[in-house]
Amino acid sequence: MKALVKSRAEQGLWLEDVPEPSVGINDVKIRVLKTGICGTDLHIYQWDAWASATVPVGLTIGHEFVGEIVEVGSNVADFEPGQVVSGRCRNCLAGRRHLCAHTAGVGVNRNGAFAEFIVLPMTNIWLHAPSVDLDVAAIFDPLGNAVHTALAFPCVGEDVLVTGAGPIGIMAAAVARKAGARRVVISDPNAYRRGLAEKVGVTLAVDPTATTLREVQRQLGMQEGFDVGLEMSGNPAAFREMLENMSHGAKIAMLGIPSKEMAIDWNRVIFNQLTLRGIYGREMYETWYKMTVLIESGLDISGVITHRLSWRDFEAGFEAMQSGESGKVILDWRG
Ligand code: NAD
Ligand code: ZN
């Protein structure tokens, strides 16, 4: 079968013929239909320090996917051929870098989903509701991070600030909206991504290099600051500005992973009685059920998908990811 393999210890990925994986008694074999490229995959493509220390050369990469079951092991009673499923692997739900380094992850230290077939243990299989669109099903994993973070605190009637309009920040903004927020402001220096955020329906997408959140508050007639913060950039400057613009008693959920230690003014946290909560997007059945229900009741995150390509054009997909002029990039593995 065809697969995207990290066959050399240098930048790039190589399309290769590899043997089809065999099915153990507790396994499910899936024909991959669509895959999403995520930041983790880009790190592996670029072969940065984290990737070269973590990923074995020769591995098929990729972990965001949707596919159709073609075969099940003799012990598997809950799944059958024809069902549309995704894999819920620890790695994909857990961000990247140091978090992934400790877990056995699909597409990071065991063969992944950028291939025509993947085999996973039945305990890692999620059966999709028929109502879920295939493209959206392919990105259930980062959507899970977004939902988990956006629902960390109640949003009903609240003014919500999202820092970072990457795919996860944009999806979280859409979820906050759906969950009843009054205003959802998102910030990102990247104009392309602010444009995408506007498409999913934020109140305002702001450029933190051109305006201050103080000014934004004034513009929106806000006095007291934001009630809920979703930190989705991992950028220290973004987090500090968020802290300065929260209301008394506000709550902040932090998903973005800072690349190193970051200093903040703790007086802000103390005197404003802020609640800070770290979010580790690990797998949760509950989140995936909520996602299905949110989608069935009208949550539309399809606007975050900017590229739909054939697997043959994977290079273009990775280029789009590297350029920053992209939301989610989907590769279609059919045909
Ligand atoms: P991404 O890198 O695509 O998006 C981050 C965005 O932040 C970019 O668009 C960037 O332009 C923006 N940004 C940079 N500086 C900023 C600033 N000063 N103000 C506002 N925005 C700024 O990442 P993503 O895939 O959307 O993921 C979001 C974050 O969540 C990443 O840090 C990722 O590592 C992390 N993550 C964490 C977990 C977890 O379990 N905690 C899981 C998945 C992802
Ligand atoms: Zn991912």
> Would you tell me the structural class of the helices and strands?
alpha/beta
Give helix % range. Answer: 25-40%
How can the largest sheet be summarized?
7 strands, mixed
DSSP strand (E) fraction?
25-35%
Number of helices: 13
What molecules are bound to this protein? nicotinamide-adenine-dinucleotide, zinc ion
* Mean pLDDT rating: 92
Low-confidence stretches: 91-103
Describe this structure in words.
This protein is 31% helix and 26% strand. Helix 6 (140-150) packs across helix 7 (167-178) and helix 6 (140-150) crosses helix 12. The protein has helices spanning 39-46, 49-54, 90-93, 98-101, 134-138, 140-150, 167-178, 191-199, 213-219, 236-244, 266-271, 285-296, 314-323; strands at 2-6, 14-17, 27-37, 59-60, 64-72, 84-87, 117-121, 125-127, 159-163, 183-187, 204-206, 226-231, 246-254, 275-278, 305-310, 328-332. The chain is an alpha/beta fold and 335 residues long. Strands 3, 5, 6, 7, 8, 15 and 16 form a 7-stranded mixed beta sheet that branches. It has a 6-stranded parallel beta sheet with strand order 11-10-9-12-13-14, sandwiched between helices. Strands 2-1-4 form a 3-stranded antiparallel beta sheet, with no helix packed on it. It has 13 helices and 16 strands. Bound molecules: nicotinamide-adenine-dinucleotide and zinc ion.
